[in-house]
Design goal:
4-stranded mixed sheet; 3 domains; alpha+beta; about 290 residues; 6-stranded antiparallel sheet; 2-enoyl-CoA Hydratase, Chain A, domain 1; Pdz3 Domain; 8 helices
Length: about 290
């Protein structure tokens, strides 16, 4: 009886899914045939998928093929671009960070420069994600930017050759006081825990830190294994870091630290903000516990 009920439920679920897919396909076909304006099928489907996922939770996301570069960036910290970070300030797109030795810095762009155009396209009405997409591209391709520089009357044009840019996992480390070390972590890429380990050794062994501040503000997360490895720097072997629960009981999993802690007795303060998410929350929550 139990086996029969389980089989029946699976068949019902499959029938319902097939029925809903047919409805979706029919609606999509009718829109494409009869809607008064020309449609972009790919954009329409992407909008539909994102709306569907938005009904579930804030964390389930869809990455189309055009956004696979974003996925690679989360895993490696590398992307094809010019090495410049931008923010919207007073409704103007401003360069707020330049990576040393990367195309934007080498070409002569400066902090505070205001972007006006990218490849001849005016940026009015575009958000920072859209402008970032314009700046990024395949390694070896060129992009031309028009900027306004404070103190100069005329706009300036720069042509940059995109290349593979590696954003540092730990952009800064140093001493806040004689005994308090500080390090900032940008994201949990595949090299994050290794670079945090190096920074900790430098702060404690070379600079004499007795306690350390780890800054995860603005860190949107990344690879789960790197979060576990980072916790393992402070917490010994065999401690549960996080558990996941799947649709079926056999998909449930517990993730534990695997090695000896590097600095098990080191007092640590974790800084987080509203943009600290995913792996950052796991690290902060586990160390707090």
């Amino acid at each position: 009886m139990v086996l029969w009920m389980a089989t029946t439920t699976a068949k019902d679920d499959y029938f319902e899914m097939s029925k809903q897919l047919e409805i979706m396909q029919s609606a999509f076909r009718e829109l494409n045939l009869f809607y008064v304006d020309e449609l972009a099928p790919g954009e329409l489907m992407e909008t539909g998928i994102k709306a569907m996922l938005a009904q579930l939770d804030p964390y389930t996301r869809y990455f189309p093929e055009s956004k696979m570069e974003d996925v690679r960036f989360m895993q490696t910290g590398e992307y094809g671009g010019v090495g410049a970070s931008i923010e919207t300030r007073n409704d103007r797109t401003t360069i707020v960070n330049l990576l040393e030795g990367e195309p934007a810095a080498e070409a002569g762009l400066r902090l505070g420069d205001v972007l006006l155009e990218v490849d001849g396209r005016a940026l009015a009405g575009l958000d920072t994600d859209q402008i970032g997409d314009l700046l990024q591209g395949a390694t070896g391709t060129e992009v031309t930017v028009l900027v306004e520089r404070p103190g100069f009357a005329d706009a300036m044009s720069f042509t940059l050759a995109r290349r593979k840019v590696k954003v540092p996992d730990v952009p800064y480390q140093g001493m806040l006081t004689d005994k308090t070390g500080y390090l900032a972590l940008n994201s949990f890429t595949k090299t994050a825990s290794m670079n945090v380990r190096k920074a900790l050794l430098n702060l404690t062994d070379s600079l004499g830190a007795d306690h350390v501040v780890v800054d995860l503000r603005g860190n949107g997360g990344g690879l789960l294994r790197e979060a576990i490895a980072m916790v393992n720097l402070f917490v010994g072997k065999g401690q549960e870091v996080v558990s996941t629960k799947g649709k079926r009981p056999d998909w449930n999993k517990s993730y534990q630290t695997r090695g000896s802690a590097l600095r098990p007795n080191l007092p640590v303060a974790i800084l987080v903000d509203g943009k600290s998410a995913s792996a950052s929350e796991i690290v902060a929550g586990t160390l707090q516990d």
